[in-house]
Design a protein that fits this description.
This protein folds into three domains: about 80 residues; about 100 residues, no CATH class; about 180 residues, Umud Fragment, subunit A. Helices cover about 25% and strands about 25% of the residues. The protein is built from eight helices and 18 strands.
Length: about 400
């Protein structure tokens, strides 16, 4: 063997010996308090022999030592391989949870209040959507598994021969024992199944007891909505500003009459429109702001460039409304003003006619802010990627229906 080859061979032998010595030393160190004295002595002897062998290793002596070292380790730690795997998994989990706690937290959009910027569970009218720019040509063509894996969507088809009448009640069910679905009894004795819980099905299919159905009464997909990562670190480097989409915790937020964003202490996502000291009012579907120490009100889009699209009247954007379904406590009419207290922020949904937000339960304390959404990682829709970067779809928002705008069913 050449001198260079000999050096390389000795390097490889030493590397293998050091690795095995590391395993032995780690085991002796971690289990020192539970091993008997004889076991500690035997392990220490094997380690000493290995350290001596490192000075001048040979293939034969290294092989014999590794064989005896493995036998001793197996004698006192028969599950060493499994233990190493579990140690690696434990470290990986700690890193993953550390990243989640300090940097990026996964988040699922819970409702439709931020549409069309961010979508919760929603219906997609595929016949019309396929004609629009930005919709993947693969959408709806990959079968049940493929379409859900890429687009988080399940087929919603209700096609009946002739004319039938819907029954008086919708019944919840499960598809594949996982997904929420709804059973619809029909007057001809048959039933139909649509994806989603009964309340969601009633909304997107515009169903009501006794309604007459014919032909393709429903033809589209139900999407599970946007899943994104929230950048928790961003608030340490830049203070919240008007126009930011923001995730916040709902605990300890209570309106004048006991209203809460959530009874479960979960997270919400809205757009921050009012800073501490801002005075707000809504007139003719436009949010006006008088900043702290300013003398006059100006439209919010003059203070936050990224909010201009909310007043485009396209793709579902509708400005800001005083009225919301149910009730509100703040900015209820055009003559009402509200000044945001210190260390608090006023939040509104982009789908303002159908959003329970700070108009109901008031401002959000600074301590409740979690972070800004960074990217949508699923599904692979036109919104996939950086949050809040898209211009509106080039279609009129139109008039609202019972719970939504039909223009929002196209993406």
């Amino acid at each position: 063997m050449s001198p260079v080859g000999k050096i390389l061979r000795e390097y490889q032998l030493r590397k293998a010996l050091k690795k095995q010595l590391g395993v032995l030393k780690n085991f002796l160190h971690t289990d020192d308090d539970i091993l008997e004295a004889s076991a500690r002595q035997e392990l220490a002897g094997v380690i000493a022999d290995g350290e001596k062998l490192l000075q001048s290793p040979s293939a034969e002596s290294s092989r014999e030592w590794k064989k005896s070292a493995s036998a001793v380790l197996k004698k006192y730690n028969p599950h060493s391989s499994m233990r190493e795997i579990l140690d690696i998994l434990a470290v990986a989990l700690m890193v993953a949870f550390g990243i989640r706690a300090l940097f990026f937290q996964p988040f699922k959009i819970p409702t439709s209040s931020m549409q069309p910027t961010l979508y919760g569970i929603h219906f997609i009218n595929t016949e019309k959507a396929h004609k629009l720019k930005g919709v993947s040509p693969l959408f709806g063509k990959l079968g049940k598994v493929g379409n859900y894996a890429l687009f988080s969507s399940r087929k919603a088809l209700l096609e009946v021969p002739g004319t039938v009448q819907m029954g008086n009640e919708l019944y919840p069910a499960k598809e594949w024992m996982i997904f929420d679905s709804t059973i619809l009894p029909l007057s001809d004795g048959t039933t139909a199944i649509l994806p989603g819980v009964p309340s969601k099905v009633a909304d997107y299919a515009e169903l009501y007891p006794g309604k007459y159905l014919s032909g393709k009464a429903v033809n589209g997909y139900l999407s599970d909505g946007d899943h994104l990562f929230v950048n928790r670190l961003s608030l340490h480097f830049r203070e919240p500003k008007r126009g930011d989409v923001m995730v916040f915790a709902t605990e300890n937020i209570v309106g004048p009459n006991g209203e809460k964003p959530s009874d479960s202490g979960d997270y919400y996502i809205k757009r921050l429109v009012g800073l501490p000291g801002d005075t707000l009012k809504i007139m003719d579907d436009v949010l006006y702001i008088k900043p702290d120490k300013a003398e006059k009100f100006v439209p919010v889009y003059e203070l936050a460039e990224n909010m201009k699209k909310l007043y485009s009247g396209k793709g579902g954007y509708q400005g800001h409304s005083n009225s919301i379904p149910g009730y509100s406590n703040f900015l209820r009419h055009s003559s009402e003003e509200y000044t945001v207290p210190q260390d608090h922020y006023f939040m509104l949904g982009d789908n303002t006619r159908f959003s329970a937000d700070s108009r109901v339960w008031g401002p959000v304390p600074r301590r409740n802010l979690i972070g800004r959404p960074a990217i949508i990682f699923w599904p692979f829709s036109r919104r996939w990627g950086t949050v809040d970067r898209l211009e509106p779809l080039d279609i009129p928002t139109g008039q609202s229906g019972v719970r939504t705008f039909s223009s929002m069913n196209l993406q």
